[in-house]
Design brief:
single chain, 12 helices, disordered N terminus, Rieske Iron-sulfur Protein, seven-stranded antiparallel β-sheet, 444 residues
Length: 444
Amino acid sequence: MTAVEERRTVDTSSVPFAMRDRLHVPRERYYDRGFYELEKQKLWTRTWQMACRLEEIPEPHDFVEYEICDQSVLVVRQRDGSVKAFHNACRHRATQLAKGCGRLGGGQLVCPFHGWRWNADGTSSFVYGDYGFEPECLRPEDLRLRECRVEVWGGCVWITMDPGAGPLRASLSPAASLLKEIGIDNWQVKWWKEVILNANWKMAQEAFMEGYHVMQTHPQLAMGMGEEFPIDTTEYLVFAGGHSSFQVKGSRPGYTSVDGLLLSGQLLADGQDAMTLERDITVLESLRTREIPDGAVAETVAATLRRHAEGAGIPWRPGMEDSPLFFGGEVFLFPNMFFLPQFGNCLSYRIRPYNDDPEWCRFEVWSLTTYPETEDRPRADLLGRFDKTDTANWGLIPRQDFGNIERQQRGLHTMGFEELRLATRWEAAISNMHVELDKRLAAS
């Protein structure tokens, strides 16, 4: 969407349960079947979305299936290293050609029904019993697999099913530049898991658009401060296109001691194994024996981590420690991608509908980090789908969030509850997402 289009007032009166302002969200947007079907028609088939990470398809002929609602797309690494994406249906009688992920044997996609084959670039390579068909059924362009548009950015493959969609970079601007500044191109998968939640995809992701919930939901992160935990130290930003971010106010967070930093970092390492990792804790432990001038803790932390990375051969984007996101924060890329960076690492979420049901979602979680350039990393694989209460696979922090999300969805159906009421100061990103969604749903 261009800047001119963004400034233009959009008539959203045709959208059911439309946002009447930025303070209230009608509850039906989270469960109404008609609203969900409109999202299928005008959002998911027209927007850019992250289909996979490049580490999922590192070698030629690797493939992965991306599913969204009732659509299935195959993302395939080409011989020259480029990437193509195909609608997952045989051109003969619609059979899905592949499921999950893997590698194309002999570089061929093979229909399991009648054995028709396609090259990795989508061109037809074999039709069993071709002499039994009329020529008009076997025209090469008709047999070629139908493609989605593909762009690669930030270590990810992005696809859109809309041939008329604008360029990816313009679609993600300006929020994407914040991630570029802190080294998104260097992040790789440490682990990747998923959970199925009984909640609408929007309800699930709204939990991560604000830090307002930390005091009550994550009391361990509030360091025992309870209601005295400060909520005005975070700056919330909303952007055109439905994107948003939040970060510590000012250019540097006000760390006052190494011990305090280590304590909060250890809570993240133990509670999520993401953002702050044990590697960082080990590096920062060395600061306990150093004299650090008052007010210089953050600067010293950044310099220490940078020197360690340089010595270990870990890529370091020049100047990334000057970004407030280096010390923590969040960037949301509409419609459903989150990045929560810290110290050259990142916690990332992708949330999408599940089983074509408006009240269920598939919630994927990545722990990303930056590895030495000489380290040979394995192909990124989903470790598994784990129950929301599985203590062996989910730390305390995500378990706390998962529980609240499902309780919200149930609460929507309570008699007497009509709509969400949003804080302009803490929850503007939620309304910003909904306003953008209405613009998409109102489009012809």
